[in-house]
């Protein structure tokens, strides 16, 4: 049974990669931060060239996150490149356009958050699915959709560390 239908939307690959990188950083900041800090300390105190090279790699590693996000979101970007409609049913969210149709079961999703004009749906596999807010007619539609998600056990409220 159809509970909600969005307006058509598209998501550029760069925007999708940016949102995925941001979601990754917000979730794993505690794992990412020690590497560059240790690399900085090591660069200051290491004397051997190989130690300084290793320290530089540790310090520069977070810079690769946006590129990795761009590469990893390629499949989803191809699916969301054409005008897509999202339909919320009893069992899953169905994304469909003229070329593809895929569904995301509610059990797979863990959190929904609004960031930078986008609704970011984060899954348990640490993937991010992006739906622009322009896909909703107004704020009431956004709230109704978030209520559907919360009924299915997806966290839609509450802020974690570093979440604005």
């Amino acid at each position: 049974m159809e509970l909600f239908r969005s307006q058509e939307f598209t998501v550029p690959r760069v925007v999708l990669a940016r949102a995925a990188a941001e979601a990754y950083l917000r979730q794993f900041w505690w794992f990412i931060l020690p590497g560059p800090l240790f690399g900085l300390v090591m660069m200051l105190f290491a004397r051997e060239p190989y130690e300084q090279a290793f320290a530089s790699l540790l310090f520069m590693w977070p810079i690769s996150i946006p590129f990795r996000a761009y590469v990893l979101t390629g499949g989803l970007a191809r699916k969301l490149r054409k005008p897509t409609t999202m339909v919320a049913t009893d069992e899953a969210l169905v994304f469909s356009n003229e070329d593809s149709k895929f569904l995301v079961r509610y059990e797979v999703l863990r959190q929904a958050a609004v960031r930078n004009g986008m609704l970011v749906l984060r899954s348990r596999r640490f993937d991010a699915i992006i739906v622009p807010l322009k896909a909703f007619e107004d704020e009431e539609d956004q709230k109704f959709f978030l209520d559907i998600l919360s009924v299915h056990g997806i966290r839609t409220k509450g802020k974690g560390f570093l979440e604005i």
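Strands lie at 2-5, 85-89, 92-96, 101-105, 109-115, 118-123, 128-132. Helices lie at 13-32, 34-45, 49-60, 65-72, 74-80, 139-151.
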